[in-house]
Amino acid sequence: MKVMNFEPTPNPNAMKFNVDGKLIEGGSRSYDTPAAADGDPLATALFALGKVQTVFYMPGFVTVSKLEGAEWSALAPAIARTIETTAVTPVSSDASAGIGGEGGLMDKINRVLDAQIRPALAGDGGGLEVVALEGLNLQIRYQGACGSCPSSIAGTLAAIQNLLQAEVDEGLVVTAG
Q1: Number of separate domains in the chain
Q2: What is the pTM of this model?
Q3: What is the tens place of the pLDDT at every residue in 95-130?
């Protein structure tokens, strides 16, 4: 696996590392702690570098958030080397079967998220997971660069809610947790 480049994200504490192969077959993996990454060789190796706060990856990129005080000038090359030297074979994602089962409101929500929201977030090194749907209350969790980005807290959340209200149901209320 070769890191083709690494680039800043809208979150100054997160960097996106683009690779020339597939890390996983589809979906995403997201880890907020070293303990959560147990059993994932790539995430475990990245956390072992120290100064790494979160690890998020999709088939073609890895996004790493750094701890306060860490400098990208030293950390980014070490992350790139770790990605390249940690032998990974594409594995299936840990994506859940989906909240709310087959059909209905959740399928409509996921179609909009998959078509319009998740690709945009991935472009900035992030992602979005649906945590729960209770009635018309949708709870999401940002992943990767979006997880601790100030703009995801308000602006992006409002945009997601507005889009889902326009395309799925005007009564949807979206919260991040």
Answers
A1: 2
A2: 0.74
A3: 444 455 445 898 899 888 888 888 888 888 888 889
- Is residue 111 situated within a structural domain? yes
CATH value at residue 154: 3.30.300.130
Do 132 and 79 have their domain in common? Answer: no
CA 22, distance to chain mean position in Å, is: 16
pLDDT value of position 142: 87
My answer on whether 164 and 134 are in the same domain is yes
Beta-bridge partner residues of 17: 6, 62
H or E stretch at 59: none
Give the tokens for residue 68. Answer: 């306060």
Question: Which of 47, 58, 60, 65 has the alpha carbon at shortest distance from 148?
Answer: 65
If you write DSSP's letter for every residue of 34-51 in order, what string do you get? TTTTTT-HHHHHHHTTSS
Half-sphere exposure in the Cβ direction for 167 (13 Å, CA): 17
* Contacts with 86 (C-beta within 8 Å, 6 or more apart), sequence order: 1, 41, 42, 45
Cβ atoms within 10 Å, residue 58: 23
Q: Are 54 and 144 in contact (CB under 8 A)?
A: yes
Rounded Cα distance between 162 and 168, Å, is 10
- The residue range of the domain holding 148 is 104-176
Give the integer Cα–Cα distance in Å for 20 and 76.
17
- Residue with more model confidence, 16 or 97: 16
